[in-house]
Structure formats: C-alpha cells, structure tokens
Amino acid sequence: MRIRQIMEAMEELFPRRLCEEWDNCGLLVGNPEEEISRAGVCLDITPAVLKAAIEEEIELLICHHPVIFHPLSRVDSESVVGQLLRAGISVIAAHTNMDVASGGVNDCLCERLGLRQIEPLGILRREAGKKIVVFAPEEAAEQVRQALADAGAGALGNYRDCSFLSAGTGCFRPVEGSDPYLGQQGRLERVREVRIEAICPSERVADAIRAIQEVHPYEMPAFDIFEDSGVLREYGMGRIGVLDREYSAPELAGMIRELLGGETIRFTDFGKPIRRLAVCGGAGGDLLEDAMAAGADALLTGDVKHSVMIQSLWAGFPIFDGGHFSTEVCVLRPLRRQLRERFPQLPISVLGETEQIFQEA
Known about the structure:
Elements: H1 3-13, E1 26-29, E2 39-42, H2 47-55, E3 60-63, H3 80-87, E4 90-93, H4 96-100, H5 105-113, E5 116-137, H6 141-150, E6 164-172, E7 189-200, H7 205-215, E8 223-247, H8 249-260, E9 266-267, E10 274-283, H9 288-293, E11 298-302, H10 306-315, E12 319-321, H11 332-342, E13 348-350
Parallel strand pairs: 2-3, 2-13, 3-4, 10-11, 11-12
Antiparallel strand pairs: 1-4, 5-7, 5-8, 6-7, 8-10, 9-12
C-alpha cells in the first residue's frame, strides 16, 4: 500500500479545504509514493509515541497536531523531524480540518458525552451540498436506495434516509462486448426503472458512488451528481447538543471527568441547570460568545485562558475546562475504525492514547 492511498482516504474524511488558513495539514514528512505495511494514529508525536512507533515498526503516523507548524530554517538530526526521517517514518497531519469535518474530533466528543440533536457551533463556512440521482430497475430500487443511505446520503437535519423515488422507463441497447443484466445485444430495451434522488455531503460522494457500484445489478449503472444550492451545509469549529437530562455544574463536571479520563476539571458555576451544552475539543475558549448566542447553557472546551474565565464570570455563563488532550483523544479509535474500514489489510495502532503528558502535584 502507498501513502498516497491513505492521503486520499484522509481527504475524503477530513477535506483540507476545511483547514484554517494558518494551519499546516496533509503530508508533512515523507513521500506519497512510499510503500507502507503498518500505520499508527495519535494526537501528538511525543518522545513516547515516536519510541512506540519505532518498536512497532510503524512507517506512517497520522497525527492531529502538526509536527511541523512553524517554518523550519534547518532540520537538526535530533529534532523530532530529524528523528522521524532517520527512522523512516512518514507523517500525515489532520488538524483543524479534523475539528470541523463530520466524524472528527467534535463529533466524537459529542458521542462520548451522549449529546443529541447536534448542530455546528462557530460557523466558519457554508457550502452547497450535492444531489445524487441514480436509476435502477424496480426490483433493485430498494437495495440501491438503502446502500445510498448507508453510505451517508439522504441526511437532512435530524432526519435520515431521505430520498425521492419516481417511476419511469429506461432505454438502452447493449452492444458487442457488453454483459447486460437485462436484454440482449443489439436490441433496444425498455425497462421499468425507478429514479432515486438523495442529497449527499461532498465528503460522502465517493462512498455513495462505491455503494451504487457494489449493489447495482447493471453492468454500467447510470447516475448523476449535481450541486444542490438549496441545501447549504454549515461547518463549525465546535458543536452544540442536548444532554440526557439537566445537570448542575458540579454534577456535569463530575460526569465530564469520568467520561473524558479523569483530568481535573476547572469550571464556573452560577447555580443554573445545564441541559444544552456547547463543546469544542482542544482550545475553544474563543467560542464563549458563540455558545451564548446559540442558546447553550454552558461551554466545554480545553486550555481556557484566565481572561476567558473572567469573561464567563461577568456573563454569568458556565464554562468547563476539560483539558486539551482529554477533549480530543476520543477521536483516535473512531479514526482507526474509519481507516480500517477502507484498508482492512493494513495494521493500524493507536499510540499515546493514555499518555500522561504533564504530571500533576
């Protein structure tokens, strides 16, 4: 397997167009044509992660925080980049694109906390969606429709499996070299077919096409992909959702500590019940005003600055600091699962998942 194949899969999952301008994502160390037989995922390339990668003979690390962030004037042999080069380990980074994209850090954080009715927070961009139209014979229409839904097409707000079906007649003439599911070579065929339409996020189009090709009975299934400006997709740095019940601030702090791995939780408390929670993995204190404007009862993030805590006090709006590492590490196992679904033959390790980066006194 070549690194380029992993890069293409990461682009489907976490498109680089979603990166902030100041960010540095993609292949940071290595050659896209290099062949690999083992990979690893991590948040940071720490000394412990690099040591484990060398011991496991890992040839590609997929990290969240870029190992090269600021311009380099030289590469010392003992620097992290120098050691990666000497060990023959390549690096792909997915940072703010993994924060923003569906299925990334913030969606995994919402899943860990059991949030429902999830919406984007801190809108960065709005994009037109795609619409997929495919034609299938009547007896296969439901199978094709379900395959599209399973691939991620047909999601609209809090609804899933959304599609439109209309009956019609398909015409085709199999020619020499064809192997038709219906009809005979050289003869014009008319078949009762169903037109299946479904909206689809841009990053799921490739999955939807593969799904059509896997289940469609025709040798050459007919499908179209249109830009759909009627459905605008909003991308945000954070998320907002609803908890299973109302919590007091101390109760919620205890639940966050239990679910995210036991770090000390800093928080402000104003004696108000909390049900609608805004979240941003990593350092998202600058989303405090966005969370208030979106109708949240509180914000959970990490690396909260002193000035943001003071802002929370003046606003009477609770903020929870769950730690940078603890609010992001939940993405690693889902990331490995998504990559293993695409590359089942590739061993992928999770590295640094329980690493104690800083000691506490």
